[in-house]
Amino acid sequence: MRRNRGLLFDLDGTLTDSDHLHFAAFNVLLAREGRQLDREDFRKHVIGRANAEIFAGLYPRASPREHEQLAARKEADYRSLARTLVPLAGLAALLDLAAKRGWVCAVVTNGPRENAEHSLKALGLAHHFALVISAIELPRSKPDPLPYQEAVRRLELDRLHVVGFEDSAAGLKAGVDAGLAMVGITTGLSATDLKVIGAELAIADYSDPRLLPFIESRLDG
Known about the structure:
By secondary structure, the protein is α/β, with parallel strands linked by helices. The protein is 47% helix and 12% strand. The longest helix has 18 residues, at 64-81.
């Protein structure tokens, strides 16, 4: 087994279709001051972005410290809503295959580590992932390539033999700029949009019959 091969996954919208829970959590927070976020603004200005950027946009008059406090409240609301989560179809089988083939798996998210750990536990998949990269803990978040570059570095992967999975424009740009072959998940964007951004393959879920040949061509080629 060659341990320098890997699969790197975003979390929300990629491992599980959880964006509707984040949407609800943002609106729980905003409702406290009589505001609401519509789905189009959520898609354009929230999905795939880091909390520092999101909350600077939602609360432009608040301080960075207040942004952190607001983000913590929103994430707590999210975790209370996400008691159970369902993995996208075919994901569990892919992760089992990765373990057999010796492909290392990791999560690379712009979200906080507490959310990632909570979500992986709720999905029952935590044992499959050797590493969780939370971009909040790094100098730069997606769309900067640093989170993916850091995962490759820490796991000692060969980036030419890595496949990344993303559902957002920011995440895809990060992976492409890190030099990875990227698969787009159509939980938030169309296949056409994902491919324009840089996805080499766009799928609805991990049961797509095109996926395994694509992975094998990168990891075993």
